[in-house]
Write a structure and sequence with these properties.
The protein has about 425 residues and is of the alpha+beta class. The protein folds into four domains: about 90 residues, Rossmann fold; about 110 residues, ATP-grasp fold, B domain (D-amino Acid Aminotransferase, Chain A, domain 1, 2-Layer Sandwich); about 70 residues, 2-Layer Sandwich (Dna Ligase, domain 1); about 90 residues, ATP-grasp fold, B domain (D-amino Acid Aminotransferase, Chain A, domain 1), CATH 3.30.470.20. The chain is built from 13 helices and 19 strands. The chain has a four-stranded parallel sheet, sandwiched between helices. A four-stranded antiparallel sheet has the order 5-8-6-7, sandwiched between helices. The longest helix is centred in the middle third of the chain and has 18 residues.
């Protein structure tokens, strides 16, 4: 009897790929990786389907040819760069999928804001700027303090709070320089920046799963540290949330309304909201799972890993949720400064803190550390499980206090012109 087979479309080197392979093995599902991994040293990429993401038509043709030889039970795009392609392929194979245009809207902060504005969702005042034209006070239609950000990056990269015109000019210059390195983003998109009103309040992250337009909320994570800028590095995720059931329902309805505005109806979503005395504000909704290792927290409430849930959904199956039996949290260990990582001291002491379940340092010694807003990774992760959310949070803070991150300065060589005598 042939086993179900799922195609996972992933950028080469995506940190999400291994988790999907592990989940497929646990579910007794065959998985094929489609990626630009022809010359990879990782066997799952080498043995997978080799496609060129720069030629979408060819990608679809190659995948459909493979499906004709051996059918797929589901199609998954792991990252923002592959979710739209996955939706287009799944549509052609009549498998569960989102409207590709809806996925595109979710990937682009400018399109998302315009879509939400049409639906009268509660969003910050915003304006779209371009890096190709000089900025003047007359062209800025958003009141300060404000937040400026690229429209096609995730994980708070390039997101900067600005309090006046001078800070805005400086931030635009900084973001423009950073985007020059993002070759995978079309140049016309790199030129667009989103400027929006800064919304004070407590921020939450929502992980959910859409089934035929219905939203199952897997978890609402509190972010207990104030995220007031100038940069917006996420650190603590704590569950269950401290918000009342009434506020939780408002959060769910706000996220669902946003999904409907985009046109999303199937699969995983990761959303960010701010909550204050004026209500629940939607910041963004992505048509993918949470990044990094944070998805491990979801297994506590479902009995399945997040990747297992995504695989099952891609195959048309819906998992019944179970109530959380304990609180949990994760600290995405922030990078305290730029330089070369020498070592991390205090690991054993941190691991001995009560309620700490796991500590993982993801950056190797000798590698360069780049903090936000330019950076795109964390130093590592600390996980905690405890009887209460307050105990889980305090355990993470105590463990973090044990760490001493030793960073050496990075000396960069610049070219110099030599003049002969």
């Amino acid at each position: 009897m042939l086993r179900d087979r799922v195609l996972v479309i992933a950028p080469h080197g995506s940190y999400r790929t291994a988790a999907f392979i592990q989940a497929a093995n646990k579910l007794n599902i065959d998985v094929l990786i489609a990626s630009q991994g022809e010359h990879s040293i990782v066997s799952d990429y080498v043995q997978g389907l080799h496609i060129d993401f720069t030629d979408e038509a060819a990608c679809i043709k190659t995948i459909l040819a493979e499906a004709a030889q051996h059918s797929f039970s589901g199609i998954i795009g792991t990252d923002d760069t592959t979710t739209e392609l996955a939706a287009k392929v799944a549509a052609k194979l009549l498998l569960p999928h989102n409207d590709p245009q809806a996925v595109k809207v979710a990937q682009r902060k400018d399109l998302a804001r315009l879509s939400l504005k049409k639906s009268n969702a509660k969003i910050p005042q915003f304006d779209l700027l371009t890096t190709t034209k000089p900025l003047s006070e007359k062209t800025v239609k958003v009141k300060f303090p404000a937040v400026i950000k690229p429209v096609a990056l995730s994980a708070s990269r390039g997101v900067i709070r600005v309090n006046d015109q001078i800070e805005l000019q400086q931030a635009i210059k900084r973001i423009k320089t950073m985007l020059l390195e993002e070759r995978q983003i079309d140049e016309s998109i790199r030129e667009i920046l989103l400027l929006e009103e800064f919304i004070p309040g407590k921020e939450v992250a929502i992980e959910g799963m859409l089934h035929h337009g219905e939203l199952d909320v897997l978890a609402i994570f509190d972010k207990p540290d104030p995220l007031d800028g100038p940069f917006f590095e996420e650190t603590y995720y704590i569950s269950p949330t401290s918000f009342s059931e009434k506020i939780q329902q408002q959060i769910k309805q706000t996220v669902l309304q946003s999904c409907q505005s985009y046109g999303l109806s199937e699969g995983p979503i990761h959303a960010e909201c701010r909550v204050n005395e004026r209500g629940v504000w939607i910041l963004e909704v992505a048509a993918r799972t949470i990044g990094g290792m944070c998805g491990r927290l979801l297994s506590l409430g479902t009995g399945h890993s997040l990747e297992e849930l995504v695989l099952l959904h891609a195959m048309g199956q819906r998992v019944e949720m179970k109530s959380l039996e304990s609180a949990a949290g994760v600290l995405m260990i922030p990078i305290p400064g730029a330089g070369i990582l020498k070592r991390v001291e205090g690991l054993l002491e941190a691991q001995r803190v009560p309620f700490i379940s796991e500590l993982s340092i993801e950056v190797r010694e000798g590698y360069e550390l780049v903090p936000l807003p330019e950076g795109n990774s964390y130093l590592g992760f600390i996980f905690a499980e405890a009887p209460s959310a307050e105990q889980a949070e305090q355990a993470l803070r105590n463990a973090h206090d044990c760490l001493n991150i030793v960073i050496a300065p990075l000396w960069k060589i610049t070219a110099m012109s030599l003049r002969g005598a």
